[in-house]
Write a structure and sequence with these properties.
Strand order of the largest sheet: 1-2-3-4-5-6-7-14
CATH superfamily of the largest domain: Aldolase class I
Largest sheet: 8 strands, parallel, barrel
Mean pLDDT: 86
Shape: globular
Number of domains: 2
Helix content: 25-40%
């Protein structure tokens, strides 16, 4: 498993040298998940600059039962954040269906009335609706929009006034730098959390098993399709009846998704696509800031308030340390110790930032 400390490449060394010019005037926003009102408050109290959340319906990509916000909760959350000079972003990042498109347009209306600071969107039609009806409502291009190059990002800026783009988690560090240098809008990258190994917005893998695609139903492995069963061979995880993985007594079990299952491939039983591990880019903070990245996002709206608080505190400390003492920045063992407790599979990876996929 790849660790969060890696051997520098020439391009990374150049970026690291450039990082000596970083000063506290360069802002790197910390964007943290809020799957519930307690999680929102935990993120704000722990030092998040922004929190992102979703409504309780299929308009957001974390449409899990028991999560997300109704009107009363979002009003209280926005008030709590704004009183502390923090921002609230609404994830409206799935794609509307013809028969129910009003649900998505109505969500934009609700967001504008609620007073969110930005809406994170993937669908161009919704962006057009928002730009035409709420020109002052800031639009962020969701990772679900699958914009992997600066030409795509500049298209969204030109036609819809997009102010920020969240990059998919499949770009290398050099590709992130190329995008940031060739667009005039803010760039946001994922810094920590569950690693999606597909190009977000283009993955329909789970729909082959569940019949529900994440782009339209808001979750790739809906809880109603997940089953755990203890068998003589070990603990089995299944998705709509399909065996995804089997764990020995000493192994940490992860939430069953097809892309992170173990399968028999050419006489080898292993993770055919990617191992379950948490993306962790603490080691790359100076390079990301030097490239001009404006925000780092923590994944995990499906996680607990305790997770949100713990991860946010670590990243707040790390970002502050990076901005105030860039020449002396290094990943503290204490940070890694705290993140180890909540990492998926208790493992970390730099993912595509420094290597090709298996």
């Amino acid at each position: 498993m790849d660790q969060a400390v890696i051997k520098s490449t020439p391009s990374q060394e150049t970026a690291a040298n450039s990082a000596t010019e970083i000063n506290a005037a360069k802002v790197l926003e910390l964007v943290c998940p809020a799957g519930s009102l307690p999680a929102l408050k935990a993120a704000v109290d722990a030092g998040a600059d922004c929190v992102y959340l979703g409504f309780r319906d299929a308009t957001n990509a974390r449409n899990f039962a028991g999560l997300n916000f109704d009107e009363a909760a979002i009003a209280e959350g926005i008030d709590y954040a704004h009183q502390r000079a923090r921002k609230v972003l609404l994830a409206l990042n799935t794609y509307p269906q013809a028969a129910t498109s009003q649900l998505w347009r109505g969500a934009i209306d609700r967001a504008a009335v609620a007073g969110v600071d930005a809406v994170i969107m993937a669908d161009p039609g919704l962006m057009r609706y928002s730009a035409d009806n709420y020109p002052d409502l800031r639009i962020h291009l969701s990772v679900q929009g699958s914009a992997t190059n600066y030409e795509a990002i500049n298209f969204y800026q030109k036609h819809f006034g997009v102010a920020r783009a969240v990059l998919p988690r499949v770009l290398s560090l050099a590709q992130v730098e190329l995008v940031a240098k060739n667009t005039g809008i803010d760039i946001e990258v994922f810094g920590f959390g569950s690693l999606c190994v597909m190009v977000e917005g283009r993955c329909a893998l789970s729909s082959y098993v569940t019949g529900e695609a994440p782009n339209t139903h808001g979750v790739c492995s809906p809880a109603k399709a997940v089953r755990w069963q203890q068998t003589p061979k070990g603990l089995e995880s299944r998705l709509n009846g399909a065996l995804i993985d089997r764990y020995d007594d000493h192994e940490n079990a992860s939430y069953p998704t097809l892309c992170k299952g173990r399968f028999d491939v050419e006489d080898e039983n292993y993770y055919a696509i990617e191992e379950p591990a948490s993306l962790n880019t603490l080691a790359l903070l100076p390079q990301l800031v030097a490239m001009g990245v404006k925000a780092v996002k923590i994944e995990g709206r499906q996680r607990s308030p305790a997770y949100v608080s713990q991860v946010t505190r670590v990243w707040r400390d790390a970002i502050d340390h990076c901005l105030s003492q860039p020449q002396r920045y290094s990943v503290k063992p204490g940070w890694m110790s705290e993140l180890n407790k909540v990492a998926e599979g208790q493992q970390h990876t730099l993912g595509a930032f420094h290597r090709a996929w298996k």
